[in-house]
Design a protein that fits this description.
single chain; Lipocalin; globular; 10 strands; 10-stranded antiparallel β-barrel
Length: 195
């Protein structure tokens, strides 16, 4: 099965929309507590006309008309059936560099490493790997993410402080499939088998 990787941020957001089961391994190089574990990542696409775009852009004094759209990201324990906690959520806005949309800025209402509004740089490699670089007040973060299949993706990130790398994270993410989608897949497979 051939995978066509997304090569623009809004395509990446659309391909990522839904709920993902994340298995995370965290390596601290400063003997901090282990943060490895499992969680759900919930991604929702935000269209350019949504008021969240204007709100997040105004935090960074960026013209919202430059935005191609965005996405909200929420995290929760994978067995937690309550609404996601807004303290574990972020909104990312895509500001592409030009029409080819291979690179640009991500405007975030809060960063992953430091929970402050932040601007990141992103670009897509020819292999479809997305790289995001973020400079925070006290450190630098880099995240790389790519799809292995439509329903499985990988994220790898590092956090560097002035004395070097102090954190590395590896995440494998599997799309959570709804009961309705499972039924559709079964029907499609039965139809193919009877041909």
């Amino acid at each position: 099965m051939r995978l066509d990787p997304p090569m623009a941020m809004m395509d990446f957001f659309r391909k990522s929309e839904g709920t993902w089961f994340t298995e995370r391994t965290v390596h601290h190089f400063d003997n901090a507590a282990d943060e490895s574990g499992q969680s759900n990542l919930i991604v929702t696409v935000i269209e350019p006309e949504d008021e969240k775009i204007a709100r997040v852009c105004s935090q960074q004094q960026i013209d919202p008309n430059l935005a191609a759209g965005g996405a909200s990201f929420s995290w929760q324990g994978n067995l937690d059936d309550r609404e996601p906690n807004p303290d574990y959520a972020a909104i990312l806005i895509d500001i592409p560099d030009n029409e080819n949309r291979l690179s640009g800025k991500l405007i975030r209402d809060r960063g992953y490493v430091e929970t402050i509004p932040v601007v990141s740089r992103y670009w897509f490699g020819k292999d479809g790997i997305l790289t995001i670089d973020t400079d925070y007040d006290n450190n630098q973060g880099q995240e790389r993410c790519w799809f292995v299949t439509d329903d499985f993706r990988v994220r790898v990130s590092t956090v560097k402080m002035m004395n070097g790398v102090n954190l590395m994270t590896y995440c494998s993410e599997r799309r959570c499939v709804s009961s309705q989608r499972i039924e559709e897949m079964i029907e499609n497979n039965l139809a193919r088998a009877s041909m």
